[in-house]
Amino acid sequence: MTRRATAGLLAVFAFALAGCAPVSGTTIPQVSADVPAPAGAAEVTSPPPAPVQSCPNLLASRRPPSPMPAPGQMPAGSTMAKIVQYGKLRVGVDQNTYNVGFRDPLNGRIQGFDIDMAHAIAKALFGDPDKIELHAITSAQRIPMLQSGEIDIVVRTMSITCDRLQQVDFSAVYYDAKQRILVKTNSAIQGAADLGGKRVCATNGSTSLSRIAALAAKPVAIGVPDWTDCLVMLQQGQVDAVSTDDVILAGMAAQDPYTRVVGDPLADEPYGIAIPQHKEDFVRFVNGVLAEIEADGTWTAAYQRWLGSLLPGAAPAPPAPQYRD
Ligand code: GLU
Prior knowledge:
binds glutamic acid, 18 strands, D-Maltodextrin-Binding Protein, domain 2, three-stranded parallel β-sheet, single chain
């Protein structure tokens, strides 16, 4: 290092010290307590109505074809043949939800339970699980991106609801989640009844946010783009709680030991793989893949690899599929 560079560094150091107050012979930096909210975070003043979960065939999807077409040999003219011709399955996923759909910082790859489901569908289409194009999207982007044709499926902690069934189709249920509440370990909040007037975070476009806004206790709903925005706001004291699916909250609690999940479940959140409307052949095919991976142990291995360490108790049985025709 040159003498001039050393002098410059010392000057910077002296300048930095000027903002510090001495405490018992040492100095600590004076850090402002103001922390910015994540981009796009806002109080929700006119929330969508609470999700409706009672309508004909809510959870009854389409029966798989028998037999399933072999990988790489999709029926001519089918949705699956078009995907094989394109060369990759385009999937909308999360990159913010630890062990479900998250970017592994060590290798930069998006991984997790939902991502394993997506790879299984690619494997059944192509014979190669890696013929896949992952699009990291927010909760609010799921339906618009399916409807615009930018992606073939969404595998992103997406609950089947009556309202969404008007806009997209769903596979059979592949995971049964439940909405719960995450707080700091020193919080007095023990359940939904304690949320009156409290600031509670969830992503825009999620069932979680509309359910928070509809709670009898009347919390203040705070909408953000991504689930990690909620965790940061809780850590920074900008919200009092996060409320969404147990599996998402368990991932946050695993990353921050100063948080914990409390209270009884607020609602069932049955996850389906979402598919654009009018592609009944592909809905049946995806259901065939789900039935195969549930029967051959792939589903249970994925659960044990990603979710077993987050959720207490033994691995549940895969959800029993319901078909309407
Ligand atoms: N399962 C809920 C939903 O589909 C919350 C999870 C999410 O949005 O990522 O809206």
